[in-house]
Amino acid sequence: MSLTRSTSADGAILTVQIKGKFDFNLVQSFRQAYADLNDNIDKVVIDLRETDYMDSSALGMLLNMKKNLTGKVETIQISNCQPQLKKILQISRFDKKFDID
Amino acid sequence: MLNILVVDDLALNRRLLTVMLEQQGYRVYTAENGLVALNLLEEHTIDIVLLDVIMPVMDGFETAAIIKERFSQVYLPIIFITSLEDEASFERCLAVGGDDFLHKPFQEVILNAKIKAHSRIRNLSQKAREQNLQLEYHQNQVEREHEIVEHIFNNALENQQSFPKHLDFHLSPAAMFNGDMFLVAQSPLGSLYCMLGDFTGHGLAAAVGALPASRVFYTMVSKGMSVSDIAAEINSVLGKLLPGHMFCAATIIELSSTGKSISAWLGGLPDTYIINQSGEVIRTLESQHMALGILEEDEFERALIHIEVEDTCRIVMATDGIIETTSPHDEYFGEHRFKKVLASKPAISTEQVLERVNKFARGSKQQDDLSLVLLNCLPMREPEQKSEPLSALPFNFSLSLNSKQIKSTDPVLEVVDVISKVAGLNAHRANIFLILSEAYNNALDHGVLGLDSEIKNQEDGFLIYYQQREEALANLTDALIIIDIRYCPEELALYFTVCDSGNGFSKEQANQQSLAREHGRGLCLLGEVASKVTFNSAGNQVEIYYQLTASSTSSH
Fold it and tell me: What's the domain range around B366?
């Protein structure tokens, strides 16, 4: 379980990548990942390509982030979901609130 | 010691020559006619033949011709010793392969001089022959090695041809030996990864780096890792492996499974273009980083470029071969001409582009490392999921956690790892995790610790909630959580029972939870993923029934 953040070469996209399990253990580091965003950033990508597991606390954290970033960035995208996690996001109607790639 | 064969039908002549030559320290063999001489030549290594012309059985002319034919590998001098003086005879001696003449009667000193001269030539010829053999051996060796390397790489470069709708690429057959490498693979999530690399140098040395790079690429793509992770890992592997002056300029691109976005790491190759339907360049992606294999791990730059693309877009990647192709007038093909060719017709193929490049180069030395990749930004087919058949054995799993264990461990993932070992359950592990995580955390947070989720509604409630949880956990004594999991192969089902020593909660509380709210989503989600969720009346035990059908792994 770990979280890494990286900014694209042009500085406009922040990517937060979560490896392993996405649950309440990440509550602090996830909150910090999008705190103090640079003004250049207009898109935040939550890259779940290496996320194997998530539970409802992850959903809560994503919603918190959305609340916090609304008005600060143009898009929040959840990308590269593994099929079972995509289904969890769909069940939770997250496809209505986030851009799920 | 030099071996000399004297061929003369007259015993006296043979005797005379033998004495003369033996005095000089040569070993002498004698034959009375050509046929005997040929036999001796087969049995012994002869360095020089002194040949009479007129002999019975087989004369000198015939003998010389046969000797020259049989012993052609190394110069074997034939000196005719003859009393014939007519020009026609001389000519004939030369024509059949004679190397020199000596007229009878002859002076000993002249004979010796000729023998020395011809033996020197024979020595040189022998050396040349040895060197040729060595050269041939090495050439064969190199050829065999090339074949082996080609074989290895053909096997190493998997599935290059597996995506004909998406990819049109050209690499010369000997590309590996020019250091050009093209790798393609699809991740479990469906996205398509391409890597075009150009190793410094040529030949085997350049090809050597391709093998570990391709292994890293395929392994990491099969795990669906990010382009920047792949670039960083290949950089580190090549850095450790290659000598300092060798590196690999590369472009690594991931096209998302929807075909709508690309992520690219660009290190040292010429510009990558995104072209539209009519072939016009709508975006130029310039190299951002140093080539792979140069920077230390901690200096490595991982930054990617992310771009949204349309399904009519194509991505054009090339090594420097194309733009550096020169015309007979020493003019470079260059980027300008390259772009013009790309826009010269819609949906141009690599073959058509290269035809134009070769036409430009006509007459001048041909480039053989024209590597070009055209990637169509189309949605990917979902990768095939290999599903392992479910075990026929009815496994049971039971775990009782006391307060010490509850405090010091986070048991959910460990339990999931154990359960997933049962054949066929690994495909369901994300759902198993979700079910166990919700049930366990519900038991712990609300059952054992008695926390109230309402806190989460406050500003920064999430953080406060988990701080309270930590405190409560630290003070926990006399608690018990029991996890029971039953796998029923007949029903294709998993039964989970999670029971805690807490006071339970009322059903009304459970019913209030809704997906629309920022918390309490857990039990609702549980109800959606599992087929049935039942609490006991005390509210301290939950039973969950999960159906192991294939549909649970599908994304639709």
Answer: 158-376
Contact state of B306 with A53 under an 8 Å Cβ cutoff: no
Are B420 and B302 within one domain?
no
How far B383 CA sits from the closest chain A CA (Å)?
A: 11
Rg over alpha carbons for chain B, rounded to the nearest Å, is 42
From chain B residues 241-270, the ones with a CB under 8 A of any chain A CB are 256, 258, 260-261
B515 and B400 in one domain? yes
B538 located within any domain: yes
DSSP B289: B
List of long-range contacts for B483-486, beta carbons under 8 Å, 24+ apart: B483/B397, B483/B398, B483/B399, B483/B400, B483/B401, B483/B411, B483/B415, B483/B436, B483/B440, B484/B396, B484/B397, B484/B398, B484/B399, B485/B396, B485/B397, B485/B398, B485/B415, B485/B419, B486/B394, B486/B395, B486/B396, B486/B397
Q: Are A21 and B555 in contact (CB < 8 Å)?
A: no
Which residue on chain B is closest to A77 by alpha carbon?
B261
What residue in B sits closest to A45 (Cα-Cα)? Answer: B306
Average pLDDT over residues B178-197: 90
pLDDT in tens, B357-390: 988 888 666 566 788 999 999 998 887 777 788 9
**Domain tally, chain A:** 1
Residue B176 has what pLDDT?
Answer: 62
CATH number of the domain bearing residue A74? 3.30.750.24
Q: Which two tokens stand for residue B542?
A: 């939950």
Domain that holds residue A63: 2-100
CATH of the domain at B429: 3.30.565.10
Q: Could A64 and B462 be called an inter-chain contact, meaning their C-beta atoms sit closer than 8 Å?
A: yes
Residue B211 pLDDT level (bands cut at 50, 70, 90) = confident
Q: Which residue has the higher pLDDT, B232 or B383?
A: B232
CB-based contact, A75 to chain B, within 8 Å = no
Whole-complex ipTM: 0.92
**Contacts A57 to B, Cβ<8 Å:** 441, 522
Chain-chain contact of A54 with B430 (C-beta, under 8 angstroms): yes
Distance from CA of B363 to the nearest CA of A (A): 42
CB contact under 8 A, B462 and A27: yes
CB-based contact (8 Å) between A73 and chain B? no
